[in-house]
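About this split. The held-out portion is used to measure sequence recovery: a designer receives only the structure tokens and must propose an amino acid at every position. Recovery is the fraction of positions where the proposal matches the reference. Here is one held-out target exactly as it appears in the evaluation file.
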């Protein structure tokens, strides 16, 4: 059984992320931003908070350690699932749609520097590392479940199952 203090930490992180995304979603519903990247501006304070925490506690190297002597082939091997995923999205969306190159760059920056940073730090950074003290299997399964659960909440706002999965 997961210890009570650990359970509170994991639950608190999950509730924080859900709360932040719900508030951001409500804001988007009320303001109807004109461009896609503006939909995620409400997440920026959370990303700044995480970056501040990592800086204050000097934990950047703990979460962002890269093997310096990795060969190009090995890097491509590790990146291949991401590249496959991006290819599937590109094919599924029938290309990249943006009103301008600037909008496209802003969307990509928002998605990678804000959304991906927050999700990866919370689920695969904080929660996974907290749960690793319990066991490897529990850590991977529970952090993956919480990641999936959080994303499944998108369906409450009318997002299709296919869009939620992909």
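Reference sequence for scoring:
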């Amino acid at each position: 059984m997961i210890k009570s203090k650990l359970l509170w930490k994991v639950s608190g992180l999950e509730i924080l992320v859900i709360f932040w995304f719900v508030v951001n979603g409500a804001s988007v519903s009320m303001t109807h931003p004109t461009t896609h990247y503006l939909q995620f501006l409400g997440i920026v304070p959370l990303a700044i908070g995480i970056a501040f925490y990592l800086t204050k506690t000097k934990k950047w190297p703990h979460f962002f350690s890269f093997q310096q002597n990795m060969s190009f082939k090995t890097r491509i091997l590790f990146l291949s699932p991401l590249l496959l995923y991006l290819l599937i999205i590109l094919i599924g969306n029938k290309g990249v749609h943006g009103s301008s190159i600037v909008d496209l760059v802003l969307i990509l920056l928002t998605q990678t520097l804000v959304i991906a940073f927050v999700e990866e730090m919370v689920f695969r950074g904080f929660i996974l590392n907290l749960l690793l003290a319990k066991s490897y299997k529990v850590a991977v399964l529970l952090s993956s479940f919480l990641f999936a659960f959080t994303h499944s909440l998108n369906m409450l706002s009318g997002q299709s199952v296919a869009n939620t999965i992909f």
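Annotator remark: Residues 29 and 39 are 9 Å apart (CA to CA).
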